[in-house]
Each structure stands twice: as C-alpha cells, then as structure tokens.
Design goal:
Low-confidence stretches: 10-22
Oligomer: single chain
Shape: globular
Strand content: 15-25%
CATH architecture of the largest domain: 3-Layer(aba) Sandwich
Distance between the termini: 48 Å
Number of domains: 3
Mean pLDDT: 93
CATH class of the largest domain: Alpha Beta
Structural class: alpha+beta
C-alpha cells in the first residue's frame, strides 16, 4: 500500500476504535418515519443494533456526530436521529434492515456532495459509507473494483500511476457512488463516455436487505437501472469500472476574457467546442465575483500529443483581449485536485439550477450575459460542458441517461459564506429569476444537479425511460424505501 493509503486506513481504524465504546443508550430516540410522522426508537432496539455492527452508531450527543452530519453544501444543516458509519457490507445490510423494520426515513451518504443535501436527513437514519473506500486495480483486465464509500481521488490515485483511468468528475473529494449513479460527467467523458458507460457491474444492498450482483448477466434490469437512476434501487457497496489507457501527464489550459467582450467570447467557445477533437475537454462559462469583477473563462485539458497543443488552441489564443492565458503540463492526479478548493471547497452555502442545451442561439448568449449582475453577498457562475463525443454514441435507452442528444450541459450556481444565512433568500430568489430566463433554452437536467424540482419534472426528465424505471423500482423497492433521490415512485 502507498503511504497515503496506509495513513488513511490507520486514521479510519483509529476513528472507529475511538468511537466504538458502547454507549449506554439511556434514552429512547425521537425520529421521523418514511411518511414524515414522528416516531420513537426504543433504546433497547438501538443498543442491539449498535452491538451487531462492526462500525458505529452515532446519535446527537455522540462524539463525532456534528462532523459526520456535515455535507459539502452547508446550506443544509440537518440533524439525523442516527448515523451509521459502516465498515462492511454486513453493516449496510444491518442498517437497511433496522431502518426498514422501523419504517425510518433513510439517507445514504458517500462523499456528501449532493447539491440538495440528500445524503443527510432530519430525524432519520444516515447510512454513511465513507469508511468503505477501498480501491483495487486489475491491471491485466483494466478493471477497478471500488467500494461505495470511495472518493474520486481514491480511484485516481490507484489507477493513474498504472497508466489507467476512467471518467470520474472534476473534484477529487466527490463521492464515487453519488457521481456515478446519477450519470457521472467528467474530464474524460468525450473520450471514454460517462461514468455509467464504464460501469461493468455493481454489488448492491436492496431494500429487502439482500446483497445482489447486477451486471449484463445477473439482474440485468437492476444493472440498467443503477446506470443513471441515482440511489433509487439500493446502496451500492462496490462498483466495477472499465479502465482505459491514460498518459498520467496532460496539458491544462485556461484563458479568461473580460466582461466587455463576454458575448463574443461565448460565441467563440461554442464555435470552438462544437466538433472539437475528442482529446479536448473544454469547460466554459461566464461568472461574476463578489467584488463585481467578472468575465468569460474557457479552460480544460488536452490529452493528445503535447506537440499539437499550440495548433489545437490557436483559435482561442488568437481571439485576443484576454485577461489571462495559461497553458501548462500537469499530472492528471494533481489536475483532478485543482478544483478542490475555492468555490468547490466544503464549507460554503450553495444554490444551483441546471439543464441540457440541444442547440445554441444568439438569444441564449444574450440572456446569459445581460442577466448577470454583481451582488456583494455571493459569487455567481454559469458553467458550460460539452456533451458530444463518446456519450452521444450510446443509445438513449441503453442506460437510464435519456439525454444522449444534448450538445451542452449548463448550470447556474450561487455560492456564499457558510455563516451568512441572512442572504439565503436573496441569493436563491435571484438565481431562480436568472434561471427562469435561461430555462426555456433547455430540456431536461442532470439528476446530480437536482435541488428543488418537483415530481413531475423528475418523471419527465427520465423521458421514455421512466416507465421502465418504474418497473425496476416495483421489483426492487416497491415501498419506496430509498426515496431521498431523484425519486422514481413505485406503482405497486
């Protein structure tokens, strides 16, 4: 094991050891049921449950509870009745069985990056997978076996030194589970497809407490459902990913243009990106900082021969009027950590809306730019990500992801300080108003960007795949036990 992995394992073991001291459970615990009713968990039942685990159970007065309930988007400040920090599949099974037997509202947490905070819940039970983070690589078969609690950085650090990689987001402290189950966009998607396009199989604990394998031979309907259906069907305790040959060194570039030329710079981005070489990953967007400064950014990575990068990026660099222009070689593992801090760091409040673009128009660009305005309480950005390349070559019904014809993903994100609760309504209302003008240009949304869409919007977002999803839900979760997600409601 590498030194980093040894330290991480030792820290996890120490944390479990320190908190495994059996609590007295002197009091019954108030909780919330699946239907939202107030219930009471008997102290004896909790004690028996805790004693059956290899991991630990935390309640509100337990050491480590306040840390364990925190999630990436600090807009959410929820207080679950119990948090189960699992260290094995058996622990996950026990947690599911305990929650089901008490009809207890249940959330599943990996990296805690859900924008809508669905990895934690008020009054319910949180199944925390963060200690289940082992990653094993089969170099000969080019396969990664990844536990459900691993983060993207755990997988990258194991695979990249071996010259292998797969699509895995852009922020290393994101959980593999949440990112993948919703689809999984990332820097390598134009080359290798979405994360779900590289899932060869999963191990999953379903609502009845069974441990199932799902792949193209075993439980193929469930295998189809987990590839884009979010957490609707169970707790995935292991993913099997297809890996691809990957040069550990890549080119990173970033070019920024002032707000005065924002419309022209966005046109440049769309023109440059459409039909671009699939060795390019190209993020774009327009942003406004808290101090009122803003502009258009075009950045990304080139995975082709370094000698070609000047030719490839020439249209961007010839545009002129830049405020910054950076092109550097970087190790891919380090690149995946570049966006970990700043606006993506844990400890900020966030609100976001997102959708898919099928075509680009001057009206869209005008709306994006002219609706921007500074606000001292928050930073605001509109991000763009091309959806062509490998993802577009997969059939719309081959996985749950119904947006294979999308040209770009667009999202608008407001970010402000964790302790600045006084401006919550102002920032959320402004973002909603901005999105109201942009949304008519979109159709559907990325389920991992779900925040406050209603059930009708969720259903229609799955498109023609929704009816098939309901059948899978009826089979594996007929009581809708796993409902804190982009929910597919059963009909049985």
């Amino acid at each position: 094991m590498q030194r980093r992995d040894l330290l991480k394992s030792a820290m996890a073991a120490a944390a479990v050891s320190a908190l495994t001291l059996k609590q007295a459970w002197a009091e019954d615990v108030p909780a919330i049921s699946l239907d939202g009713d107030s219930i009471t968990l008997d102290k004896a039942d909790i004690r028996d449950f805790a004693d059956s685990l290899g991991g630990i159970v935390l309640q509100s007065d337990s050491a480590g509870y306040d840390i364990a309930r925190q999630v990436w988007n600090r807009f959410w400040n929820r207080r679950p009745a119990l948090i189960v920090r699992c260290i094995s599949v058996d622990d996950v099974v026990a947690a599911v069985n305990f929650a089901r037997s008490h009809s207890l509202l249940t959330a599943v947490r990996c990296g805690g990056h859900s924008m809508s905070g669905k990895g934690v819940c008020d009054g319910g039970l949180v199944i925390d997978l963060s200690y289940m983070n082992q990653v094993d690589i089969d170099v000969d078969k080019k396969i990664a076996y990844v536990q459900g609690g691993a983060q993207l950085g755990d997988m990258d650090r194991k695979a990249l030194p071996l010259g292998l990689a797969t699509t895995a987001g852009v922020v290393s402290h994101t959980g593999v589970g949440g990112l993948t189950l919703g689809g999984g966009m990332g820097r390598l998607q134009r080359r290798f497809g979405l994360a779900i396009d590289n899932v060869l199989g999963v191990e999953i604990v379903t609502a009845d407490g069974k441990v199932l394998t799902a792949n193209d031979k075993e439980n193929p309907d469930l295998y189809w459902g987990v590839r884009g259906g979010g957490g609707n069907f169970g707790v995935v305790t292991k993913f099997i990913f297809r890996l691809h040959n990957m040069n550990p060194m890549v080119i990173n570039f970033g070019i920024r243009f002032p707000m005065a030329v924002a419309k022209d710079a966005l046109k440049l981005y769309f023109d440059f990106t459409t039909g671009a070489d699939e060795d390019l990953f190209i993020l774009g967007g327009v942003s406004m900082r808290e101090d009122g400064t803003g502009g258009v950014s075009i950045g990304g990575n080139y995975f082709g021969p370094p000698s070609d990068v000047d030719r490839v990026l020439k249209p961007l660099r010839d545009f002129g009027k830049t405020t910054s222009d950076r092109v550097i070689p970087i190790e891919y593992v380090k690149l995946q950590q570049v966006a970990d801090d700043g606006l993506n760091a844990p400890g900020k409040r966030r609100y976001a809306k997102g959708g898919f673009l099928r075509e680009i128009s001057d009206d869209l660009i005008t709306t994006m730019v002219e609706r921007m305005e500074p606000l001292a309480s928050r930073s605001f950005s509109v991000g763009l990500l091309p959806m062509d390349g490998a993802p577009s070559r997969v059939g719309a019904s081959d996985t749950v992801w119904a947006h294979r014809d999308a040209s770009f993903n667009i999202d608008s994100t407001s970010t402000w300080a964790m302790d600045n609760t006084d401006v919550d309504e102002e920032n959320i209302s402004w973002n909603r108003a901005y999105w109201k003008d942009v949304e008519p240009f979109t159709r559907g949304f990325y389920v991992n960007q779900l925040i406050d869409e209603n059930q009708g919007q969720v259903n229609s977002n799955y498109g023609a795949n929704h009816a098939r999803l309901v059948k899978v839900k009826n089979t594996y979760d007929p009581t809708n036990f796993f409902r804190l997600n982009a929910n597919v409601r059963p009909t049985v």
